[in-house]
Amino acid sequence: MRYETAREIEVAVANYFSIFRYVIVPNIMAGGGIFQYEPDLCAINCITRYATEVEIKVSKSDVQKDLDKKHHHDDVRFQKLYFAIPEKLYKPDIIGLIPLMAGILVVDTGGHIIQKRRAHKNNNSTKWEYYDMYKVARLGTIRLWVIKKDLLHKYHIESKARGE
Q1: DSSP character for 133?
Q2: Residues of the chain whose pLDDT is less than 70?
Q3: What distances in angstroms separate CA 82 from CA 87, 118, 120, one per listed residue?
Q4: I want to staple 80 with a disulfide (CB 3.0 to 4.6 A). Which of 10, 71, 119, 142 is the partner?
């Protein structure tokens, strides 16, 4: 792995925040009763109940597209906002496109994260209610079983191809 794809960066970010301290769920769809837009990754601290939004960007055009969106990453359910990018994107012209309030997490080719800029704290942010945390955690659990089913299906196809 080179940690340049969105999935690879998601794994690096989950490790950075720690799956033991946070409820971490990627790609929460808008309209699901949780958000009005689609955060790339939501990380809710299980102790403080404050959340962090992480936007994962893998190209300059990906960063530029974020500027065209109607929302401005100012949801009160998020205390902090980070942009996670692969190391190859850490260049002045790209950094200049990232909102100043956002922290920057750079993922190196080994999957390690270097915090290049701290996120500003949203002083209007609110703690999450347990029921809302449950909804996000439930979504993550549903995704786990869908992924396991897909992996099992792929395993059976590969087993047949090998003649097992």
Answers
A1: H
A2: 30-32
A3: 15, 8, 9
A4: 119
Residue whose C-alpha is closest to residue 113's, from 56, 50, 51, 40: 56
Q: How far apart are CA 76 and CA 148, in angstroms?
A: 33
Q: What is the pTM of this model?
A: 0.91
The shares of helix, strand and coil residues in the chain, as percent rounded to the nearest 5, are 35, 20, 40
Q: What is the CA angle 75-78-127, rounded to 5?
A: 110
Exposure letters 4-28 (e unless 16+ CB within 10 A, then b): bebebbbebbbebbeeeebbbbbeb
- The domains of the chain, with CATH numbers, are 6-128 (3.40.1350)
pLDDT of residue 113: 98
pLDDT digits (tens, 9 = 90+) for 124-140: 999 999 999 999 999 99
